[in-house]
Amino acid sequence: MPRLTPELLADILALCEAGASEIAAALGRALDTSLRVHIHRAGSLDFASLPDGFDGPGLVVVLKVGTEGVLFLLPESCGFLPSWYANPDATGQSKLTTLAQELGMLVIPESLPVEDFRAGRVSNLREAMVRAGLVDGAPSIAVAVSGAKTAQAVALLTWPAAQPDQSLVEAKPSGAKGVPSGSASSRPPLSGEVVSPVSPSGRKPSLRDLPSYSKSLLRVKIPVAVTLARKKHPLGKILELGPGSIIHFDKSCEELLELEAAGYPIALGEAVKVGEKFGLRILRIRLPDERILPVKRRTLAGQ
Question: CA-CA distance, 157 to 12, in Å (whole number)?
Fold first, then answer.
């Protein structure tokens, strides 16, 4: 099983330094602003000397590798976190999810697959780090983030968080009644989380409620492909193809690309660059085709 060890500090630091401009671009797209990023320092986490703003609210990005996690924390006091990030709508959640996904690709070595990623606001960054199981001496990289009209702020990238999901679970407010700690009513929706009705018992249904035989289907891997364009060609023309041949398609360069899962189109998106890799930003989800069947009238026997 892959592990987030302190020995990864040099590798992750090198990725951060090489991808600083891409990290800035990812943050800027998600937060609707223009930002600059440079690596401030790398070393060990010290709760006694956290950057300014870590005793208050901020954004937490969780990148899970196995059962552990890497946290990226940015204080709200920086001034360039948009107001919507505290209670994002579907579009805002999509932006935060995309940010988490892009950061995972930019700062985590390829040998460590990021199995889950999410982002959200917490009321206290220091407390979120403690809930996640981070301790003094953990590897830490300070990332200086600055905007065009704001002062510079320092974000932290640190690991390993033994309980990364707990970083985004806020404690029940003092005096609150009838609201389970960590429920949908006690915290803003996590990035990428589908908001669904709360059951009469006060608990929101989740994938954990599925029977084991159904949950096993969620681990099945299926091929995912992005289609640039399609065109039918005479077989004779195809046989004439060779190195240097160019096939002209009718599709415009401005049109969206199609995402397929197991051969079925499920979404449309646009091509993006994530570091030195190709990615697809989802812009539209395709609804399943409607199937209309005739309703046959049942007749009684003998009629």
Answer: 10
Q: Per-residue pLDDT tens, the chain, 303 aa: give them.
A: 668 999 999 999 999 999 999 999 999 999 989 999 999 899 999 999 999 999 999 999 999 998 999 999 999 998 889 999 999 988 888 889 889 989 999 999 988 988 889 999 999 999 999 999 999 999 999 999 998 765 689 999 999 999 999 999 975 544 444 433 333 344 444 444 444 444 444 445 555 566 666 666 777 888 999 988 888 888 988 898 889 888 888 888 888 999 999 888 889 998 887 777 888 888 888 877 666 666 666 655 555
Q: How many distinct helices (H) and strands (E) make up the chain?
A: 6, 10
Domain range for 225: 220-237+252-285
> Cα–Cα distance between 57 and 41 in angstroms, integer?
23
CA 170 from centroid of its chain's CA atoms: 19
Is the same domain home to 162 and 16? yes
Residues 16 and 140 occupy one common structural domain: yes
| 8 Å CB contact between 172 and 202 | no
Q: Compute the distance between CA of residue 199 and CA of residue 80 in angstroms, rounded to an integer.
A: 36
Residue 20 and residue 158 share a domain: yes
Task: Tell whether 281 and 145 lie within a shared domain.
Answer: no
Which backbone phi and psi does 182 adopt, to 5 degrees?
A: 85, 5
Query: Residue holding tokens 């010290």?
Result: 46
Decide: pTM greater than 0.85. no
At 90, list the tokens.
């579907």
